[in-house]
Amino acid sequence: MTAFDVDALRARFPALSLEQDGHPVVFFDGPGGTQVPQSVIDAVTTYYRESNANTDGAFLTSRRSDAIIAGAHQAMADMLGAADPHEIKFGPNMTTLTFHVSRSIVATMAPGDEIILTGLDHHGNVDPWLGAARDRGITVRFWEPRLEDCTLDLAGLDELLSPRTRLVAVGWASNAVGTINPVAEIVARAHAAGAWTYIDAVHAAPHLPIDVQAVGTDFLACSTYKFFGPHGGVLYGRSDVLDAIPTYKLKPAHDRFETGTQSFESQAGTIAAVEYLAEIGTTYGTAGAADPRGDRVRAGMTAIRAYEMGLYRRLADGLEEEVPGLRLYGITDRARFDSRTPTAALTIEGHAPRAISEALGREALATWDGDFYASGLIERLGLAETGGVVRIGLTHYNTSAEIDRVVGALARIAEGAAVA
């Protein structure tokens, strides 16, 4: 196993060479969408040059498209630990897929049945269920987070579970504040109550190894553009559960849950993104080249996490020591950092989040501000009317020098000094 070489990996991402006014652009915007390695760009462009056709045709480019489609389903089955590639469904993004499949899932319920949602989640795992439940007279109950550290207390779930519970929808990790939820335990408790589980893994996928069979969830959704791939979404559904729910589809469509023509070029790029993560697993992780691809991906994600959390500790230390008036949200106890991703949510007293992000942007530091569609959490924190938070999202292509740049810039903002 080789020591993690961030410079070697950065060299594979063309966007990381961008400059703004003579300064290297620093990408802390990963939770909204990551940059992609050259291999992903090549896979997409090669698809257009050599395979561009619709599926199921009796000619060369269509057969090539069919092979890419099959390869993409297998790649995501490997990455997520699915038992079969037919348990993988592609779509435009997690939100669209969830709106689509929520109709099928809720169609199995009856008035008086209950769905449990959380006050921590992105609205992509809230609003689809609210709408579907409203249409069928289903009761929705909210599992409230502890606002002091933005975590979910399992005792709170136990209080909500009942024989009427049919679904628990929860995020693997919070895209706003970085909390990692104990999804295996949540799934076990939901199943003991007779309920299915639907996990939003969009924010977890670029930071954590995922194994749906180990966790035991019935459904899991993520978006490929959050883990170094092209724009697209992926849904995992356990085969027996998929078979048990109705579908809303065109009669001749080949798949019960993939509606319409898919983005085959994005699926080609997805294969390349999964291969990139697998290569990290063999180069910087504990996997061997002959190991199954899923094991190599999970080894790669383990190596990525170790590197990222080292960066996050540097960031958290710098912010707390050098930036007056700053507050970090979520888990701040270093002993509990295993339960968070390298995603910082912050405010600075006397400075609007948008103004902070704009000032950072003038220094070629890309950050997000607002609520990031986790509106419920930001409202519960009392921050909605003041612009939410600033989010600094680290990924494995960030560096210690970049951490020091953003800490220094935030310190100048907090002290009222010019940033640009």
Overall geometric form: globular
Beta-strand content bin: 5-15%
Distance between the termini: 42 Å
CATH 2nd-level architecture of the largest domain: 3-Layer(aba) Sandwich
Annotation keywords:
alpha/beta, Aspartate Aminotransferase, domain 1, 2 domains, 4-stranded antiparallel beta sheet, 14 helices
Summarize the structure.
With 420 residues, this protein is of the alpha/beta class.
Summarize the topology.
Layout: H1 6-10, E1 19-20, E2 23-24, E3 26-27, H2 38-50, H3 60-80, E4 88-91, H4 94-106, E5 114-118, H5 127-136, E6 139-143, H6 154-160, E7 165-171, H7 183-192, E8 196-200, H8 212-215, E9 219-223, E10 233-237, H9 239-244, H10 264-283, H11 293-322, E11 326-329, E12 343-348, H12 353-362, E13 365-366, E14 368-370, H13 375-380, E15 389-393, H14 400-414
Parallel strand pairs: 3-13, 5-6, 5-7, 7-8, 8-9
Antiparallel strand pairs: 1-2, 4-10, 9-10, 11-12, 12-15, 14-15
Helix pairs in contact: 2-10, 3-10, 3-11, 4-5, 10-11, 11-14
